[in-house]
Amino acid sequence: MTRIIQISDPHIVPKGELAYGQVETSAPLKSCVETINRILPNIGPIDMAIVSGDLTDFGTTEEYQRFRDIMEPLEIPYRVIPGNHDNVSEMRTNFSDQEWMPKSGPINWTAEFTDLALIGLDTNVAGQDYGNLSDTSLGYLQDILADLRKKPVIVAIHHPPILTGMETMDKHNLRDSGKFQTILSEYLGELKLVCGHMHRNITASFGSVICQIAPGTSHSTTMDLRVGAPHCLTKEPGAFLLHEMRGGIMTHSIPIGHFGDTHLFYPHLFDGTQ
């Protein structure tokens, strides 16, 4: 069965700096890599990881190089898509050695496995926090889905096309998503949409498909559903998602970090005592 890990929103900044003046983002991403490598014997094999946008905070070469240095020890292959904090040109240049990176246009790509396909789409709009899918990207998606016929598919974008109730983030989500919804809903096979951007684990419907938003690695958008709530972050524990084929596409949320050894619920059942 195919297994895909989704990491999202690491927001890597230059060495010695803090994201938003508050969050040290490199250590959590390092811990994420360490966590994945450590638990691979229990959850693997893993076919691929995807980082669903906002790799960096400002989209600079220094930040992308730092991101790649931190990800280097990861023991599985990974691919990336841009978020609103990324710079598509800089990302393309800094991943130009990767065969999956397009040489021009939106950063769209497809990875096909035996029982699942993963499609990454570029929702970056230069200079804007909100997202949009270009006609080029929508055409790419339609063509790939037509080729895949009824094979199960995960489509990954950065900006969610749904409203979550967190106003300060919802206004920067995916815009003009009607055609996108139609394309996904008309696919005859199983399809799941996965996103980033919100820094929280959220699940909702988008047309006839499930939309799964991933938590961030280092901080969260504050859970505040009041009208007019301020735009805030909270230093909650980070996590990543594991998507796998198990009679369909199943998703697990895994916290980042080490929480001690495992313990049997009922050790006396295994040590001969009653």
Question: What does this 3D model show about the protein?
Answer:
The structure is a single chain. This protein has 274 residues and is an alpha/beta fold. The protein has a single domain, classed as Metallo-dependent phosphatases (Purple Acid Phosphatase, chain A, domain 2), CATH 3.60.21.10. 24% of the residues lie in helices and 22% in strands. The protein has 7 helices and 13 strands. It has helices spanning 26-43, 61-71, 88-94, 135-148, 167-170, 178-185, 268-271; strands at residues 3-7, 48-52, 78-81, 109-112, 117-120, 153-156, 191-195, 202-206, 209-213, 220-221, 233-234, 239-245, 249-255. It has a 6-stranded mixed sheet with strand order 4-5-6-7-9-8, with helices on one face. Strands 3-2-1-12-13 form a 5-stranded mixed sheet, with no helix packed on it. Strands 10-11 form a two-stranded antiparallel ribbon. Helix 1 (26-43) packs parallel to helix 2. The protein is globular.
- Just name the CATH architecture: 4-Layer Sandwich
Broad structural category? alpha/beta
Shape: globular
Query: Distance between termini?
Result: 39 Å
Calculate the mean pLDDT score and round it.
96
Radius of gyration: 19 Å
Helical coverage, percent range: 10-25%
What's the CATH first level?
Alpha Beta
Strand order in space, largest sheet = 4-5-6-7-9-8
- Overall strand count: 13
Number of helices: 7
Strand content: 15-25%
* CATH fold-level name: Purple Acid Phosphatase, chain A, domain 2
Q: Biggest β-sheet, characterized?
A: 6 strands, mixed
Taken together, the total number of domains comes to 1
* Annotated CATH homologous superfamily: Metallo-dependent phosphatases
Instruction: Report low-confidence residues grouped into runs of 5 or more.
Output: none
- Helix and strand element order: EHEHEHEEHEHHEEEEEEEH
